[in-house]
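Following up on my earlier thread - several people asked me to post the actual chain instead of describing it. Fair enough. Here it is, all 685 residues.
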Amino acid sequence: MRLRGALLGAGNIALRGHAPQWAEDPVLREAVDIVAVTDLSPSNLEAARAFFPGAAAYARAEEALEREALDFCDVCTPPFSHRGLVEEAARRGVHVICEKPLAPGLPDAESISEAVRRSAIVFEACHQYHFSPQWQAVKRLLLGLGRIYLAEYEVHRTEANEGNPHWSPAWRTDRAFAGGGILVDHGAHIFYQLRSVLGDPRTVQATVRTLQHNYRVEDTALVVLDFGACLAQVRLTWAARRRQIRFRFVGERGELVGDDESVRIHADTSQEIRFADGMSRNSSHSEWYSPLFLRFTERVRRQDLDPAPLDEAVYVTRLISRAYESSLEGRTLPFISSPAEELEAPAEALVASLGAGPDGERADSRAAVERRRRVRVLRAGVAAALLGAGAWTFHDMGWAHLGSALMAAHPGWIALAAAVNLAAVGFQAVRWLALVRPLSPLATLAQAFKSLVVGFAVSTVVPARAGELARMNFLGRRTGLPPASIFSSIVLDHLVNATGLLLGLALLPFVAHVPLWIRPGAAFALALFTVGAMLVYALWPLDAGPPPASLPVKGVGAFLASARQGLAAANRPSALGLSLGASLVSWALEVNVTAIAMRAVGLHLPLSAAFLVLLAVNLALAFPFAPPGNLGTLEVGATLALVGFGVAKEQALAFGLIYHVLQMVPIGILGILFAGRAADGPVTA
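Reply from S.P.:
Thanks for posting it. Predicted structure:
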């Protein structure tokens, strides 16, 4: 019976390492059918389908796990996604072979381990270096050295391997995706190789640094492992001048040395084994996967639940985590923390979370209740203020005159204003894209525009700008960026946009009379801008230092790390400059939208009036507890501004309603179309 498998992720390692073996190895080809391939990139899916023409293609790996009847899945996605995918596969009883490292941090690795053991599935880690000809020769020749008491391993690279160009080329140097730098990328292989001949170390001492590259992870790591009877030193760098691998094992009866092309033993007798294809020739080594895949498929057929491969994968993650901790603390650490260390953090968390008062209510629960009460009071106050302003504005409204003003509106001017407004939204997408590109260089204007429009459309039916969550989710599904990173880019986008608003307020006295009612709104907008700027400053992405000891995918540490990554544009003046330039163009177009909309209702006012109305409307929209679609706030702001120019309330309100509709209706229709296409299948833009 042939096994049905799915290739989850179709990036570089999948296309260059995994797929060629599943498709071309004669034994695997007869034993396995890859029935599904998944990737966020349509280009990657197309490349994977070239290996497996009959396979179904999915943008999301979770969708393949849900829809396909699978025996196993081959997880080829970056480390940050492993926990969710392996746990989902385990829940469905699907066997798993997973790329290294198992997870970006120890908590996630242990969670994966629990899920695998609980579900009784076969698990295999992609530790394919066990099957390299060089390492097979090393293990065979080491038997002639007797007891090993010294080991050295060096990996020199000139830079990090590039990620797939159709997703995020720099993901290996993004802590949120990879969990770390060269210690994660290359150290993982060396650590399980050393374990296979030396066992588990007693202590770990490490130093990690970023010496040359402008990476946000380390490009160099020095690790000393004390095995008791043996010391091992591992030196890894992406800052070398040429690619090279060197290793040395010293034992009681001689030594073994090796490099990219040969292994040499000098003991009772000397021997040299040379290899035509060196270890540094490329980073894929596809042929090393074949024996690994054969072992995995045989284990699946036998239902062999041997935990050794899983234990080895957890070991690698634990060792990497302890190395980061050692570097951070500047001291040698035991590989397995003491019972006191294991209990210390949970105990502290327990004390912090169980601060019960006399009535038995937890302190954090009382704080949450108090926060919710303050939010309700604030919302009620804002709603009361808006209702009061609306009542004062419209109390003497002639509703028959309002109807006449609406009926007399010119549809041609309305259509033109709606078209110019879409152009303004296009430049808003350019503004945001300039801030997203440092995170995902292949993010497109179409993706940014569609995400923005979907967010605007959702905001028409949910309050308090909650549509930003839809904007975040829409872009995340197309770029694979973490939600926290996208959220930070949205905050930065709002700050850039607010910079244009504040510049407009500063220019207002030079082009129009400033009414008294606009000043509280301006002060509130400035306060919001200040709070946002302080938040960005607090999370400002500094130069990369050593990564945290562990980086759980779910948790405050991971959120903050991802959030900092989302502010990467803050360190790039060119990105900020492009974003601000697009913002100013968008503001200029919006002034014209306002002027054209006024012309539609028969208002022939100077451009300064359009400028003041636009500022008034946006100040009204600055309140974070605005109703769905900003219903009412926009009309109040527009009416107050126009009445100051002597416009009748009826005509002013007619303008506000038409101005609101010409923005909402086209955006709402486009948002529904874009969201509908996303629900039907992957979007290729």
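The longest helix spans residues 363-394. That should answer part of your original question.
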